[in-house]
Predict the structure.
Amino acid sequence: MAASNIVLYLSFAIAGLIIGSFLNVVIYRIPRKLSIVRPSSSCPECKEKIKLYDNIPVLSFIILRGRCRNCGASISIKYPIVELSTAVLYLLNYYFFGISFMTLLGVIFVSILIIVTMIDIDFRIIPNVIILPALIIGLGISTFLVGDIWWRPLAFSAGAFIFMLIIHLIYPRGMGLGDVKYSAVLGAFLSQKVVVGLFLGFLFGSIYGLIMIIIKKRKLKTAIPFGPFLSFGSLLALFWGNFILKWYLSFF
């Protein structure tokens, strides 16, 4: 591997760790209706401001052994998980798409997937303050920078929205409006690959639901957050969606 390539991989990994740290702020503050800009990060328990040297992605968590330096309160393992996940996904974007506008679309998209997934798991909501800007950004990048046919991202975004809205109207307990609006964002970023993303999302969601029923942790009517499954399916579609579509169409 060329030295320049190694530098680029390291750059994407470091950028992912740093941005992942910011995503943790967004994930914590948005559902609580707090500003993501001010004040600076502090311990949720003792309210002590976190020093810069205690805010190094992943490393600070390891050094502090997952506890606040001031009060000793436990720090959630979700923080380093988000940071590491962001770094890995940024690396995958560079690996698949190189230096291109598609990589720009990809890193923004996976950042949105991480935010939505973590908020939906904790709060069972997908906030409009994330969905609406993400929709505009996705349509803009897909249409004007990636070079897709201008109508295609819009068509698949609208198509995904209508498809999910129909499911919501038929079975509102199983499909929230947040998921419906989220599907429009997925279509804006993925274009035709959103078909794969939605299919895989439903597949993984169904498998998870059946497993939970079998081990008797959930009843048949118990609601589960569907956003994480849509996110995981869309993540696979981002990197392997075209391959999956070609494989499927080869049977016809």
User: Anything to note?
Assistant: The mean pLDDT is 92.
